[in-house]
Every structure is written in C-alpha cells, then in structure tokens.
Amino acid sequence: MSSPQTSQWELIKALEAKENKISDEDIEAIGAGDQGMMFGYASDETEEYMPYPIALAHKLARQLTKVRKDGTLTYLRPDGKTQVTAEYNEDGSVKRLDAVVLSTQHDPEVSQEQIHEDIKKYVFDEIIPAELVDEETKILRKSDRPFRDWWTTRRQRTDRT
Predict the structure, then answer these.
(1) What is the mean pLDDT of residues 146-159?
(2) Cα Rg of the chain (Å, integer)
(3) Amino acid 152: pLDDT
(4) Closest Cα to residue 86, out of 48, 128, 29?
(5) Are the C-beta atoms of 76 and 105 separated by less than 8 Å?
C-alpha cells in the first residue's frame, strides 16, 4: 500500500530538479508531478500583453490570494483556481463574460452560503467589470453552484453610482 505523503527521496529529487541537478531517469521515476495546462501568446488586448480572459483570471487569483493572506477571509486555504471565458465583438473587443469559475480550498466548518457571499463581495465585486456581466453570464464556484444573484446585485449597485 502506498503512502499519500511524499517520500524524502521524492522531495530531494524535486529540489534537485529545480536546481537542474537531476537525471532523466530520476525524472521518469518521480512522474509528472503537479500538472497543468499551459498556452499563450502575446496580445495587445491588455497591458499585460495577455488575452483578456487570462488577464482577468490572473487578477481574480491574485485577489483571492490577497483576501486569504491579509486575513479578510481567514477560512480560505491555498490552492485557488480561476477560469474566465469571454465573448468577443467582431472588432476583437470583449463583448461580455460568458463564464467565470472560481474554486478555492476552505475550512470545512464554513457554510457554502458564507463562502458565496464573501467571494462575491471581496473577490468578484472588486475585480469583475459589471458592464461585461449580463443575465447569461455563468458565475460558478467549486461546487458548481452558480452565484446566480451576483450579476443582478452588482448591476444594481453599479447603476446607482
């Protein structure tokens, strides 16, 4: 039976890999490690030279980290993930957000309702431009429960100011 914990050998080899002191055989023995999908290209769509959905996803991730580290949301744990999908106009400008997905680890005793409220207030409201959100925008959390009222509340607040 294998242990879910990383062995000392695996840790040493992982550190060696970061320092470019590891053989191909050692890499094969360890396996792929933490996997992720990467893609990209330079774009003048944002000041970061990234496509808008990626830049917005990065901003959401940074805000999620900020509210965790500064103590705003003490129940959050590391390992948040974000994804943004946008619809574009014919001229290449962003027309609207089709979907925003945010997943985060959290203490087990916190209710889903509290997490939804706090993520809306301290992450989404701070980062997502209200003018790109409409009634068709899907705002989802790790549990895939939509923040269905987020866009309405956000729109109303923006329209009043």
Answers:
(1) 45
(2) 20
(3) 43
(4) 128
(5) yes
Amino acid identity, residue 104? T
Q: What is the pLDDT at residue 96?
A: 97
User: Tens of pLDDT along 23-61?
Assistant: 666 656 655 555 666 666 788 889 999 999 999 999 999
How far is the first Cα of the chain from the last one, in angstroms, to the nearest whole number? 60
CA dihedral 85, 87, 91, 93 (to 10 degrees): -50
pTM over the 0.90 mark: no
Q: Write the CA distances from 155 to 79, 130, 137, integer angstroms.
A: 29, 6, 12
Query: Measured between alpha carbons, how far is 58 from 52 in angstroms, rounded to an integer?
Result: 10
- How far apart are alpha carbons 109 and 124 in whole angstroms? 22
Please enumerate in sequence order all residues whose Cβ is within 8 A of that of 100, keeping only pairs 6 or more positions apart, or say none.
Answer: 60, 82, 83, 84, 85, 124, 128, 137, 138, 139, 140
